Amino acid sequence: AQTVTQSQPEMSVQEAETVTLSCTYDTSESDYYLFWYKQPPSRQMILVIRQEAYKQQNATENRFSVNFQKAAKSFSLKISDSQLGDAAMYFCAYRIRGSTLGRLYFGRGTQLTVWP
Amino acid sequence: DGGITQSPKYLFRKEGQNVTLSCEQNLNHDAMYWYRQDPGQGLRLIYYSQIVNDFQKGDIAEGYSVSREKKESFPLTVTSAQKNPTAFYLCASSISGGHYGYTFGSGTRLTVV
């Protein structure tokens, strides 16, 4: 079974500080994609960052970066210089590369609060 | 602009009634998905469709039905057999294979009254 675990139901950070959200996944596959989605209070799901498992280089999108540890099956999200607009629920997701089904497996989410 | 439209945003249903949630996309995506979101449960897959006139059950399909008569449309019917239908429902679409993740609609909040 494909599972994604986010062990931190809630996290908080001071504005301008850095926070790291954890994600681990369980799979027997060697090639896959990993994603972080953000769901603000509007509940619109927004893709934050994407990582291809066969690429060793960690993905970066402006203030968002990942620490991808394939052997440990870990995919954490680091948010630098946190802003009030970063407050949201964050979901980690996983998808097998090459699968015709195309479904994503999601974790249960981490609720991030940003304090001014 | 291309995107996914879910309607209505809020929906109220009496117990014992069927209700249909609409999902339309103009992204020319082949695949479409329905997820249910409950507090602390994350997103759970209800149904998905890779091509027109074909769809598969997800992890929690009982009490739900779908159709895929057009590429652009993937409506979800919540039947009276669904014992706990109050939830937030998200529709998503992707290119074939979903390599770049999903594009999501803005969701429908269904409440049973």
Give the helix/strand layout.
The complex is a heterodimer of chains A (116) and B (113).
Chain A: E1 3-5, E2 10-14, E3 19-21, E4 24-26, E5 32-39, E6 46-52, E7 60-61, E8 64-69, E9 74-79, E10 88-96, E11 105-106, E12 110-115
Parallel strand pairs in A: 2-12
Antiparallel strand pairs in A: 1-4, 3-9, 5-6, 5-10, 7-8, 8-9, 10-11, 10-12
Chain B: E1 4-7, E2 10-13, E3 19-25, E4 31-38, E5 42-51, E6 54-57, E7 64-66, E8 76-78, E9 87-94, E10 103-104, E11 108-112
Parallel strand pairs in B: 2-11
Antiparallel strand pairs in B: 1-3, 3-8, 4-5, 4-9, 5-6, 7-8, 9-10, 9-11
Outline the structure in words.
By secondary structure, chain A is mainly β. Helices cover 0% and strands 52% of the residues of chain A. Chain A contains no helices and twelve strands. The radius of gyration of chain A is 14 Å and the shape is globular. The mean pLDDT of chain A is 93. Chain B has no helices and eleven strands. The mean pLDDT of chain B is 92.
The class by helix and strand makeup of chain B works out as: mainly beta
Percent helix among the residues of chain B?
under 10%
**Count of alpha/pi helices of chain A:** 0
Strand content of chain B: over 45%
Helix count, DSSP H or I runs of 4 or more residues of chain B: 0
- The amount of helix of chain A comes to under 10%
Question: From the structure provided, what is the oligomeric state, counting identical versus distinct chains?
Answer: heterodimer
Biggest sheet overview of chain A: 6 strands, mixed
Overall spatial form of chain A: globular
* End-to-end CA span of chain A: 41 Å
Note poorly predicted spans of chain A. Answer: none
Radius of gyration computed on alpha carbons of chain A: 14 Å
* Helix/strand/pairing category of chain A: mainly beta
Poorly predicted spans of chain B: none
